[in-house]
Write a structure and sequence with these properties.
alpha+beta, disordered N terminus
Length: about 280
């Protein structure tokens, strides 16, 4: 009846043996994971190398920029220091040379026409001429000649205004201190309380009323160097007299306050003493 078929063993060929894995499945998986992690690690190393290089280059660039800023700041400060030191020296020499050439130009053409070419001879002649004019005008005859010349100049429509303005400025620094000159440097409270302004006393005015008389000072406060300004009538009690001469006050105004002394002391006058006595009396009351 049904005889059992005998089992046949098929021999394994060499090709089949090659197909079989040489290692267990778990070992193969572990090896694959290790290889993938190694590949990933190499990729991370490759990515970290450019980032570290870029950070180093950025740090080097920042250091160079900081160094350049320090050098630029140092060079700028030293250059400005040199300009500050050399500027007044250059201006002084330039103005001195211009004044020398200007004064020398009055008489140097005359000497050149005569064939005398000596540097500075025209300057010496001009200074001597100015000195002689000063001596002559100080006499009675010179004053009469000057008055006659001013009479002709004041009849000219446009020239008289220029002459009057320039004469007032020259009279302000005149050593004679005549009635047209600035008599004294003062400080007044202007334009409001807490602010002060330099001024020059030009004259004195007696203000008369029915009950009393009050002495006022005509104070000229320059607003644009010396030739333009405002005039105020101020009582003697409101005038502060510093220890400055008229020449020093003019230098302060012309220089825009750069020649201002660091300390100003007030001269003691009778008006100041009276004001102090009045204030002390009012405090006692």
């Amino acid at each position: 009846m049904g005889d059992a078929k005998p089992s046949v063993l098929i021999p394994m060929t060499s090709r089949d043996r090659d197909r079989d894995p040489l290692v267990p499945p778990t070992a193969a998986a572990a090896a694959a994971a290790t290889s993938s992690s190694a590949v990933a690690g190499s990729d991370d190393d490759d990515e970290s190398k450019p980032s570290s290089a870029s950070a180093a280059s950025a740090a080097a660039q920042t250091g160079r920029e900081a160094f350049h800023k320090v050098v630029h700041s140092w060079a700028s400060k030293k250059f400005m220091t040199g300009c500050v030191i050399l500027f007044p020296i250059a201006v002084t020499f330039y103005i001195t040379w211009w004044f020398f050439c200007f004064v020398d130009g009055f008489f140097s053409p005359i000497y050149a026409h005569l064939g005398i070419n000596i540097i500075g001879l025209g300057f010496v002649t001009s200074i001597s001429f100015i000195f002689v004019v000063g001596v002559f005008m100080s006499s009675w005859l010179g004053a009469s000649v000057l008055g006659l010349g001013e009479w002709f100049i004041k009849r000219m429509p446009f020239v008289r205004h220029i002459y009057n303005a320039s004469k007032q400025i020259s009279a302000a620094i005149s050593p004679d201190q005549n009635k047209h000159a600035f008599k004294e440097v003062v400080i007044i409270r202007h334009p409001r309380i807490g602010e002060y302004a330099f001024g020059f006393i030009t004259s004195e005015v007696l203000l008369q009323s029915y009950s009393r008389e009050e002495e006022l000072y005509c104070v000229y406060v320059p607003t644009n160097h010396l030739y333009i300004g405002d005039m105020f009538l101020i009582t003697s009690s409101d005038v502060i007299r510093p220890n400055l001469s008229v020449r020093e006050g003019i230098e302060i105004v012309v220089s825009g306050g750069m020649s201002m002394p660091q300390v100003l002391s007030i001269l003691e006058t009778e008006d100041n003493q009276l004001n102090r006595m009045r204030s002390s009396t009012s405090k006692l009351r």
